[in-house]
Amino acid sequence: MRQYLNVVTAYVIMVILIILVGIFQSWSQALSILNYCLISAVMTMGANIQWGYAGLINFGIMGYTALGGLAVVLVSVAPVPEAWKAGGLNMMVCAGIIVGMIYSIRYSLKKIQKSIKRNYLIAGIIIIGLILIRLISGPAIENIEAVNPAKTGFLGGLGLPILFSWIVGAFFAGGLAYVIGKIALGLRADYLAIATLLIAEIVVSIIKHEDWLARGVKNVIGLKRPVPYEVDLQSTPWFINFVEKFNSGKLKVINSVTERQDVLNQLVIDASSVYVKLCMAGLFLTVVVVLLIITQKALYSPWGRKMRAIRDNEEAAGAMGKNVVKEHLLIFILGSAVVGIAGAMMVTNDGLFTPGSYRPMRYTFVIWVMVIVGGTGNNFGAILGGFAVWFLWVEAAPIALFLINFFTSHLPETNALKIHLIQSAPYFRFLMIGMGVLLIMRYRPQGILPEKIIKQ
Amino acid sequence: MDFLNAIILILNYTIIPALSYGSQLALGAIFVTLIYGVLRFANFATGDMMSFGTMFAVLLTFYFQSLGINLGVLPTALLTIPFAIIMMILYMLTIDKLVFSYYRIKKSPPVVLAMVSVGVMFVTQAIIRIIIGPFDRRFLDGEKFILKATEFKEMTGLNEGLTIKSTQAITIIVTIIVVSIMFWFLNKTKTGTSMRAYSDNEDLALLSGIDPKKVVLMTWVIAGVLATIGGVLYGLDKSYKPFVYFNNMLPIFAAAIVGGIGNPFGAFLGGYVVAFGEIFITYAYKKFFTYILPESLEPNSLMQLLSTDYKFAVSFSILVIVLLFRPSGIFKGLRL
Prior knowledge:
A: about 450 residues; B: about 0% strand
């Protein structure tokens, strides 16, 4: 038990912090923070699998998150039959052409000997394919985007349950990781970081500007939910009864019937939002726990030992007969798939898909800060990092505001410096996060909860 | 006549903008490559450091304007550059002293330093936003155009006008001056040679008595000059917005890698490769072809390879292609 003491303490502190937010701000706010903390924890676990287990640096988190979000739209939104009629066939043909291109290139790479002729052939296949795609898709895209552009203007999805999209998100992200891994995994660590960052930017810019796919920057709103809606709850008898019972002490004090009804209505509205967020938190917690069990099992399995051996000394592991390239690719795909799940979870939680909001700052660098702060190679640490950094990211502005007011309390309200500082309070979150990283890197480079190697 | 029109069109819409954008990228890319070559890490705070230097130029420009000091037809910002550079170098040296030197002495792997630079990026961004705010600021004054389209049309009688903005001319001229001084310094002076020696082989350089402190100091000084000038030129040409500078880090990295990271001359050319790639691929050639082709062959589409939305994506794709086929950059072997 002693050895788990620091883990337990760290998590208890985190839970107390969230409860404090619930008491001092509101329970709804506390639960939103908790939900985002859980989502961040899944992302961090994904990044930790790559960085902590295998030492692969992946700055493309943003791309996988966006693909996970895209999966939610493509799976859960109802299909738009008019758009399919207008250009669905052409888009399917284009997809067929892309598949054909890939297979013919693979075939020529395998069967024809390396020569200038082969290069010309491959270049020819790509150019002809691109021209064909341009010719076929051009009018189709115009037609699709013309279908009721204010509301749809895209092909829509499959209309399946939204939870299914979390798995699809994992497959999308894994697929992208396969492609990126094939291209970039041979590179040196910092080259790999830059390459993955830039490839993720390409992916996001495609999602942003291909309106026929998921409406691009016009956003998809009103996605389905795996949990009940607040409005429905507010008119459900059992829920109202439950709230009444729960708050019976508070309600008894009020004598007037109409006043009591008003208070009850307000309580029901508050409680419905808390209830919905609790349901979401339950779902997310299930994902986190399942992933935690799997990753812990993997970390202490022969496979985990092999990964650590590869991380610590690639040459030696290679000499022992381990296929370093294959294992790197596998772990790259696995980690990215986990991030893809997180991306799908996030869009499900928000109920909207906004490709314009995918920025490297928020979805790559902050996640990396979480991994480093939490502890590389330790799953509990990764989850804790997700919680702690997200908590700081959200609560930094109130904390900064409090500190500014405290330190400038002797200054008059009209003081220019004070007004300027109060206006720039939201930017102190960058300062806190940055200082946090620098301090952790300097004084505790293994993170809050360092990697623990259990000797069998 | 049509042929001349076509050439002017291409000059006006692609070559001149690409030259000035490429110069701005080139300065940034040399900055990245110098840090990578001498200090051996990928500096993710690049964009924000450029932004930091530019911030001082912007603030000083506003201050000078309030005092009534200006350069007449030239933008006041040019006058503020030396002061901004001094502030920038001071900031960089402070950061190096407080943060980077510890890892350098400990000989940490480059990945750790890159992670640390992410922390520096956050802090720099916060300082910039707290001091100047996240808003868009224009600080260009003086004459806006050297040559206006209407004047050019009157002068030559052509259909197409040629516009040269003063910022474009300033960018290109300043870049040529700065880069040539820098290459002269790196190649002909003793300090420059010692820097190159240190970058090629640290141990041998130390053995032959090169002072590593001096090399590091000189690197930050040159980096500060390049970062500030590159940032100010970009800000004059477009406008100053901290977020945009952060995003500019990405094409700058692309330029540095395309040119072969660690190789200043490659980075210089890489900036232009990326800029020309971006603009040539996203330009709509319809008008160009209507000038040079006979009427029967005139195109009816835009003749655009990719829409301008994908401008950034083009530079990243160039990078991916380079990484795939020549991971050490297309100007490999083009040593100083």
